[in-house]
Amino acid sequence: MNKMIKKASYLSSILFLLISLSISAQTHIGVFAGLNSSKLSGDAPINSSYKSLIGANVGALIDISISDNFMLSAQPSYSQEGTSISYILPGTDEEIDSLSLRLNYFSIPLLFKAYTANQRFYAIGGLEFGVLMNSFQKIDDVKSDIPVDISSWNLAFHFGAGLKIPLGIPNLFIELRYTQGLENLTDTPVEDNIIPRVKTSGLKIIAGIEIQLKKNSN
Question: Of 24, 64, 81, 86, which one has the greatest count of Cβ atoms within 10 A?
Fold first, then answer.
């Protein structure tokens, strides 16, 4: 509980800073949607491996200029993540997809964007704070609870690249990101758990539009 309160306090402080900066800085707002190709990484159950699972990623953004070529971006979003688990059949090398795990998060990535001189291409990187909204496992299309306690918080690192395409008043943008969890979702030994000592990981491809709220006074 103390750990959760501390993280919530850090997040509240960062959001307050963003709001304060947006009052005097050039600001953009927008919406986006895309796909996650996510899986778990770390210890896997015996004779098994984690495979990618596709999910949706939708949200909004506020970008705040901190210099001519750098922006700070907050992106509250809903993100479907998880993994499928494949098991090797005894006596063979054949893998079968036995079950899938879905982890749905409300997350707030806090990212830096570094633009090239023409303001079209940019690199992106930063941290994502995620709150687990719900989770379940699916076996033969039948949903049930995951039989293990999973951390209600997740912390992940993002890095990637994007392209901005001016369309007049709005801008279209497309991004490709890699994400890597920084904290274990569980700490149970591998022999006792279908998801022991694992972290989230995956690729995101998103597209969206943004508009400028406030022009630079210069």
Answer: 81
Alpha carbon separation from 37 to 43, 81, 87, 200, 208 (Å, rounded): 19, 8, 20, 11, 18
What percentage of the chain exceeds 70 in pLDDT?
Answer: 78
Structure tokens at 87: 């098991």
Q: Quick one: which of 41, 34, 31 has its CA closest to 202?
A: 41
* CATH class for the region spanning 2-214: mainly beta
pLDDT the model gives residue 218: 47
SS3 116: coil
Q: Quick check: pTM over 0.90?
A: no
Eight-class DSSP state of 190: G
- Strand pairing class (153-166; 171-181): antiparallel
Is residue 181 a contact partner of residue 200, using CB atoms and an 8 Å limit? Answer: yes
Kindly report the backbone phi and psi dihedral angles of residue 144, in degrees, each rounded to the nearest multiple of 5, phi listed first. Answer: -155, 170
